[in-house]
Design goal:
Pfam families: Wzy_C
Helix content: 55-70%
Strand content: under 5%
Radius of gyration: 25 Å
Order of helices and strands: HHHHHHHHHHHHHHHHH
Subcellular location: Membrane
Shape: globular
GO molecular function: ligase activity
Membrane topology: Multi-pass membrane protein
Main location: membrane
Number of helices: 17
Amino acid sequence: MSSTVELPAQQAVSQRRDDWRDGLLMVALWVWYALLSFPIATVDAFEIVSNQVLIYQGAGLLLFVAAAMILAPMRAAEALGRLTPAQLAIVVIILASLALQFHGPETAVLEGTAYTLALLLVAACLSGLWTMPPDALANCLGGIGIVLVAFGVFSIAVFGWPQGRMVGGIHPNAFGGIMLAAFVTSQFRRGYPMMAVKAVSLVLAAAVSSRFAVIGCILAYLIFELSARPFGSRTALMGVAIVTCLILVATVFKDVLALDDPSRNLDSGFTGRDDQWARALEAISEAPFGLGFKRPPVEDAGHNGYLRWLLEFGVLGGSLAIAATLAITLSAIVEIFRMPDTVPDLRRLGAARAAGLVAVTFASFFQPQLFNLGDVHGVTVILMLFSLRIGSRSSGEGPFVPAARRPSQTIKDTTSPSAQDNIIKLSHVPIRQPC
């Protein structure tokens, strides 16, 4: 009987310990996102570098990595063992890119090498977050949305409503990228507060006319709503309502995207950057084998994350990384529809993951970097791209299995000798055959 009593108590203590670790890890992640966003409200949008902001970014990064390594070091190792072949291919490409660092000044070589290794470490730590139980994962990612939308509200309160797309000294595309990350992460958690986060982040992205952010939010919402639950009359009615709204407010939508603004044709926004992309293609042709991660000048990357990959990892490595990214995104969409309807919580997480991947990979066409440890968009891309598959958790393995479906260890431990004797006695009782 003692083993029967001790086991639940041990499980309760272990559960409380895991809850504390999850809570502290969440706080560390939220603080990092806060330090990535709030300090830029004090910086001129056209200032190339600010030591003060770099200090905040570095402090947040070190805090999160230290928390992940101290509180849950095995989660990162477990996550690496569960990466898909496409995700592992990106890891291999990043590792191989270390060979491209050995050119130019020694300081640049050391910085590029250190940044590459730091990227791999952060990717492992962020991937480890996906081993949390479903409720904890939803709270963790939903909390990011609250932090980022709080930054948006804070900026509006300090600087006032955007004038000419600018919120104080914050670049509109940086502001829009933060609002897109808020929208994407808020979909992981249920509740009216998360609905408010989505509404506010979309409105603020539209207020600065950040085209990629507005379209990214719409894509994320549509994919989530169409896949989070089985297709039915509610989903069909929602789709009709969305199309109707787009038709009725076509003029407003056109103004938000500034489709007829001649000042935003070739060097800004959704429809242009042709000259910058051409310059990036020329730089790629001059260095087809790549320059190494974080080594190319910003002006040569075309303000496009995928072109930057081709310039950093080379035509071969960059193309493979882009193909792997596409494979990860498509597989995330496919796995939602293979997920049974009996696990709605997991289906919701899978739908939010797929929607987030589509949104951030689309936005990366108009963001200067996909991987950036000092930028909200760059960190969110890493978080989504190295996320673990959700569908596998419905198979009866791992911490994502609903409690009702987890095999009970109590039954195994309560088979004391007396209980075993009773089982043996019952096995010898004759069974009456039916007439």
